[in-house]
Structure formats: C-alpha cells, structure tokens
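Hey, resending since the last one bounced:
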Amino acid sequence: MMAIWRSVVGKLWLTILLLVAFVLFILTVLLLSFFEKYYLEKTGEQLTQQAVKVARVVAEHDEQFARSIAWTMVDDVSKLMIIIDDRHYWYSPNEQLADLPLSFIQQDKQLSRVFEGKKVVKRTMMPNETMRNDAYNELFIVGVPLRTSDENGAVFVYQSLKAVEETTKQTTKFIFLAAFIAIVLTTVFAFFLSTRITAPLRKMRQVAFEMARGKFDSKVPIVTHDEIGELAMAFNQMGRQLQFHINALNQEKEQLASILSSMADGVITLNRNGEVLITNPPADRFLQAWYYEQGHREDLLPLPPRVNELFTKAVMEEKEQATEIALQGRNWVIVMTPLYNGKVIRGAVAVLRDMTEERRLDKLRKDFIANVSHELRTPIAMLQGYSEAIVDDIAATDEEKKELAKVIYDESLRMGRLVNDLLDLARMEAGHLTLHKERIPLRSYTERIIHKFQALAKEKGVRLLVDMNEEFVVFLDPDRIEQVLTNLIDNALRHTDDGGEVRVIVDGDEEAVRISVRDSGSGIAEEDLPFVFERFYKADKARTRGRSGTGLGLAIAKNIVEAHKGTIAVHSKLGEGTTFTFTLPLK
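The structure tokens again:
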C-alpha cells in the first residue's frame, strides 16, 4: 500500500481526487445555499400573494363568508391566521401545523409591525408551547395588514420549512451520487492518465538502473512526441554521450595504464595523506624490496622513511624534490613532484629510476681505465727498463743482452695479446662478431682440444680428463668455441695445484648440450662470483705475473657463447674448486 502512495500514479490520483472532492464540496455548499434561498423566495412570494388575496376578501365581504372563502385559498402545507383584534382571530383548519399564539405575534418586534401597516416576511422558530413531538420547529411566516372599518388587523400565512429540509436532503443525495460517480470516473481517468505518463517514466527508471550498471547502450522507446517524448529523446542522447565519454575515459585509462606498465621507471602516486594510490611494476619491485628488507613487519610503513620525508618536503615547499637511496643492492633515484587540484595540492607523484646499471657502468668505466692503465704500465715499464739496460751497456755479455731482449720480446707479445683481446671484445660487444658455423661432432672436437693441454697438465702434475657418454653433433663456430674451451681449461690448469684434477664433462638432452670444465683448484670467493665475467676482473687481487691473465678471457668467452644463443655460468667454493658450464642449443 505504501508503495502506491510513494509512486507517481498514487500521488497523481490522490491529487486529482482531492481536487475533485474539494470542488464537489464547494459546489454542494453553493447548491444547497442556492436551493434554500430560491425556495424561500418563491415561498415568500406565494404566501404573500395568498395573504394579500385573503386580506382583500376579508375586507370586502362579511366575516363568515370571507372566512369560508379564505380557508379554500390556502394549500395543505400552509396555515392561515386572520386577526381582527385581540379578541377576534381565527385559524384555517390544518392539523399538520399548530396554531400560533396571538401573544407570540404581538411580542415579536418584526411580526408586530404588520399591525402598523407593513408587510413582514420572516423565518422563525415555533414557540415551545405549541410544538408537538412530530412537528418541525422552524416556520416561514408572511404577514400583511388587514384594514377594516374599526380596527387594524392582519393576515398571517405560515408554512413549515420541513419541505426545504426534504429538498436539501434530496439535493444532497443527488450531489453525493454525482460525487461518487465523479470519483469513480476520476479514479479511472487518473490511473489511465498516470499510466500514460508514468509508463515512459518507469521505462526511463529501468534504463537509468541499467546505465548505472554500465549498460550505456540501453534506449528508452519514444512513443509520444510531447514533453515526455522529448525527455526520452534527451535521455537517449545523454546515454550516447555518456557511452562516448566513458569509452574515451576507458581508452585514456588503458592508455595511461599501458604507458605506466611499459615504463622502465617506477611511478608511485600518493594522496594528500601520503597513502599509495597507483603503482606500476618497477615501483612494485621497489616496494617489495623495501618490505623484504624490513622483514614484512606489521608496523611497517608503506614507504621508506626517506621517501616519506621527500613527500613531506615536496608538499610543504610545493616544489620538486629529488634524492637517491640504496635498497637491496640497487640504487634508486627518486624525484617527487606535487600534484595540484586547481591551486590546492592533492598529493604527489614519485618517479623512481633504477640507476644500478648506470652506477655499475660508471664503476666499470673507472675500473676499465684503471685496469688498462695497470695492464699496460707493467709491460711498458719493463720494456723501458730493459731497453735502457741495453742502451747503457749494463748487460756486459751477449748472453745477458739476449736475455734482456727475450724479456722485451715476451712483454711485447703480452701487450699484443692484450690489445688483440680488447679489439675482439669491442667487436663482440658492438655486434660485429661473425660466426662461421658448421656441424661438429663433439667427441673428436673435444678430445683434440684436450690433447693440446696434456703436456702442460703433465708438466704441472694435474690430471686432465674428459667425460662424454654419447655423441653430440652441434652447429657451431669451431674456432670460437675452441677459444672458449681453451680459456676455461687454461684458467683451470693455472689455478689447480700439483696432484689436482681438471675434468671436461659433456652431456645434454634433445634441446641443448652442456659442456662443463671442473677443477679441484683454489676456487673463487663467493663475493667475486657475480663479477668473474666482467672485463679486467680478477679474483687474484695480487695480479701476479705468470699466473694471472689479462682479465678479458671470460668476458670474451661469455660474448662468444651468447652469440651462439647459449648461456654460461659458474659455481665455486673457496678451497674446493670451480665449475664453468656453458650451454649450446642443438636446434
């Protein structure tokens, strides 16, 4: 029931019903007043005419004859009273109306004016002493003067107003019937009109709910061309505009999300309270590193303290701030910029750039200069020193001069190897390495390379072995892979003491072949393992001549293996030995 009153149909129906009821009420009051006034006027005219006629008859004829004629001149609902003087007055025979006492007329100021020669029309109440139980107590009385030869009398004709009451009742019943019919018709009309009005509105409400759920292609049917039809057209146009703008926003959102996801730099958007709103994958890695470093504590702040300080400073000073922090072995440069909503700061955006590689390259550049300078300074110093010895005739005998010349020759060869390795490495890193691949059976290929080192191994007292259970045919550049194996075996022999062992292991599967060079030598410290493939990096910090190489061999080996679409790795324990493994694809 309450749903009806809350609906437009119920409200419109109630409004129309109240309006019709109010109009009918006003009309009823006016009609009743009109009928009553009209009846009283007509009754007054009729009674006045009767009274005038009776007065004329009484004045022109004798008393007895005049009364007999007068009694016939009044109808059944009226009663006639003829007054000659205080002792002579008569009433017409009518049992339905009581006789009015003469004293009542004489004591009434308005009625008593008839005796002064004036006509009187009055609506009055029946005296209590004359009323019967079934009598109506309201009268309509008309009085006209009666002039006789001796006295000033009067003729009164009065009538009960019960007829007026009956007329009012009939009129009221008629009006109530008309009101009932009007209410029924109004209800039907109101519901019909309301349905015509609210049906499109209900459809609009349904479509609005569908739009709220994201179905912007929903349409409101246009069944009329009035204001509701125009509203439906405007509603459909609004839906199309909403769909257009939502699609545009979604495209911009997807574009922004794609841009953020594909950015190499991390992005963190913060609100005014410093809470994280949006992040991209690099920023997620930064935050995960922060959480991992702090041990995932429950009271952990969402951002590192230095980042929070940078955010506070950027918001307070309303200008861009920058800092660099180290986290989990990586260097991050953070630039914090305020975000504005009009003229009010609504947050900030932090751009995080991983500068680890740049810092590493800077270090490598510095180390490269230092290493090249170191590697060249020693042979140049020796060349200069031994040359001066020859020039200054310090070497007295030919044998000493020959020994000095041999040292100069060895150092020049070392410088040549260093320069050639640098040129090879530069070409490889620039992508200028040309491979001459062919299908090579690994068993005979590996045994040939091992055979070259057997004399050196025997000289050092190191066992050099090869393990290969099955034959593999690999598509490779034999010269370049031989360069890799030569470097790895040479390193293993140089770092393995007398009585040790160097083993070359070849195995694989259908996808790739793995070649490992394992020694039982001194091993590599754990902190040196991540850098063994860097240029000029040497685990032997003393850089002793003879045992240590140029520091470029492993870097060259890594570039050759990667040029073959392979991988190379190292595993080592200090004092137990080292294993270098590189993998080459078979397909």
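The longest strand covers residues 330-341.

Sorry for the duplicate.
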